[in-house]
Design a protein that fits this description.
Largest sheet: 7 strands, mixed
Radius of gyration: 21 Å
Distance between the termini: 53 Å
Strand order of the largest sheet: 2-8-7-6-5-3-4
Strand content: 5-15%
Order of helices and strands: HHEHHHEHEHEHEHEEEHHHEHEEEH
Helix content: 40-55%
């Protein structure tokens, strides 16, 4: 008999994917100019030429048996050292290769981190608005995800509510900064306040509370934004990273988990991840991609287009009348809907105009909608009259 739990999940397709699929269908039926697809966070700039050259040189010059052979369970030693050295150089940390675990993107890193520091029955806290896939990530470990309501005035952490949620069963706090969907970056002040609170609760409860940081947008930071390296401010932390956005490599599924060297049992967590892989079937990212990114760790794609798009869109939408907390990074914006029902606003009003935007209910923040502006600037500029028409329809 097939598993009923996963069978039921097949009928609960991601809302983001529903909008994305609709946009493709509309474009096929009515032409590409009939739709402005702001539904999905797929990078719109190419990977650096140096990444392509690195792969080409490896394939051309390396022994194919060695190059395409199995990676060690805990990752290639050269890749782990390169990642540790880069983090230490850029952020003043003390990582060793033993603190680094290469993974299949940030999702693979989160899957391992969550299993390493929780057990069935534990609670994991996150903050609205949040990436909806956190639900299966956490549920799959046997832990329970609890979501602290948003502070929609800033989308910084709602500390008043957080204190209510920090009960003795909390084993981990999961944060995403820069944030999908809001584009907000948690400030140094916010992270220091969070760290102090977690340290106090650790002492009170007599057990560690790990801070798991989901950081695929870490390099997409806008000018003047305060963006601390979070692990530097809290010892019991695990950083989960992906090169999907910084190097525009989402399809290559390459990232890593970095255990803070100051964390409790820091030397054990990466070996534990190797054992966790035996249950998840992870078995390391490809050897080729591990090798290819070794020389690219301080490099990025040309990410400037995202800030350019953000400025154009924010200035135009706020002039129209939309209320928006200005993003400090990523390629997302999270305006307030001019009507309370953001589903009606997106599914009925926006969709009819060919504007494909995602209601905030999916991110547990009703009354808002997400715009993913990783698109050509020309598309941003052409969409503005439609956003005006949409606003005027409901106001």
């Amino acid at each position: 008999m097939i598993n009923s739990f996963y069978k039921e999940m097949t009928g609960k397709e991601s809302v983001i994917r529903q909008f994305f699929d609709y946009s493709r269908k509309r474009a096929a039926e009515m032409g590409p100019d009939s739709v402005y697809n702001f539904s999905i966070g797929n990078p719109s700039v190419p990977a650096p030429d140096s990444v392509t050259r690195a792969m080409q040189e490896l394939i051309a010059n390396e022994d194919p048996v060695t190059l395409h052979g199995y990676s060690p369970t805990l990752g290639l030693p050269s890749t782990k050292k390169a990642i540790a050295d880069s983090l230490n150089r850029r952020f003043g940390m003390q990582y060793t290769p033993g603190h680094i675990f290469p993974t299949s993107g940030a999702a693979g890193a989160l899957a391992h981190a969550l299993r390493a520091v929780t057990k069935p029955g534990d609670t994991v806290i996150t903050f609205a608005p949040y990436f909806p896939e956190y639900i299966p990530y956490v549920t799959g470990t046997g832990a329970e995800l609890k979501v602290v309501p948003a502070d929609p005035t800033s989308f910084q952490i709602n500390f008043e509510k957080l204190e209510e949620y920090l009960t003795p069963d909390v084993a981990a706090v999961l944060i995403n900064s820069p944030n999908n969907p809001s584009g907000i970056v948690y400030t140094t002040e916010t992270i220091k306040r969070l760290a102090a609170l977690l340290e106090d609760r650790q002492k009170e409860y007599g057990h560690e509370i790990f801070l798991i940081t989901d950081e695929p947008y870490r390099e997409i930071i806008f000018e003047g934004t305060d963006s601390p390296f979070i692990s530097k401010l809290y010892d019991n932390s695990i950083c989960c990273y992906s090169f999907s956005k910084s190097l525009s490599l989402p399809g290559e599924r390459i990232g890593y988990l970095a255990v803070n060297p100051a964390a409790k049992d820091a030397e054990l967590i990466v070996p534990m991840c190797g054992q966790i892989s035996r249950f998840t079937g992870h078995n390391c990212p490809s050897s080729l991609m591990q090798r290819a990114i070794e020389g690219e760790l301080d490099n990025t794609s040309d990410l400037s287009i995202y800030e350019k798009n953000a400025v154009i869109l924010y200035d135009a939408l706020t002039e129209i009348g939309y209320s928006i907390v200005r993003p400090g990074g990523t390629f997302y914006m999270f305006p307030r809907s001019p009507i309370a029902d953001a589903n009606e606003f997106c599914w009925t009003g926006a969709k009819e105009l060919g504007l494909i935007i995602v209601p905030g209910d999916s991110f547990e923040c009703p009354g808002h909608f997400r715009i993913s502006y990783c698109v050509p600037t020309e598309q941003i500029e052409k969409s503005i009259p439609l956003f005006r028409k949409l606003y005027e329809r409901f106001v």
